[in-house]
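Handout, section B. The chain below has 169 residues.
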Amino acid sequence: MLAIQIVLVIMALALFVLFTQRAHTVRTQAVKRIGFVLFIFGGIYAILRPQDVNWIAHKLGVGRGADLVLYLLVVVVAFFAANTFLRFRNLERRFTDLARSVALSNAVVPAPRRESDALAAVETAAGAGSAGSDSAADTEVASEVGTEVGTEVGTEVAQPVPAGSGRQS
């Protein structure tokens, strides 16, 4: 096994462990920045001194310096792909949490019905009475509840929609 193969496999495994274990800690962010700066300086050095890159490549068992740069670039692209994936996954999780928070803060809780006790009494009286009750009894019960004669007991009353809730009334 060539020395470059060992170096590249160790680099790939180290990046994998680093980013799957601690993707967004301060220390990991610092390592990313330091690695980026080193990569930039290494690229500038390889451009200015290609004979040194060839020498390093021969010491690691690679035929040419360009091949060594290509191998390192493969590791860097894999790092970039893993980093981008983890960042998008974190953003998706944050957007989901934000959407849940907004949904909970904008939730409309129905107002309690004020005449619920009176309506329960009307329903009980209507259930206990005969099917052909007279209109005078209906008028009396309806006046106690505050509704008109002829409306069904227990029907939903439309609640006003709060302004800015985004719902149409």
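Note. The chain has two domains: 3-104, 116-145. Compare this with the example in section A.
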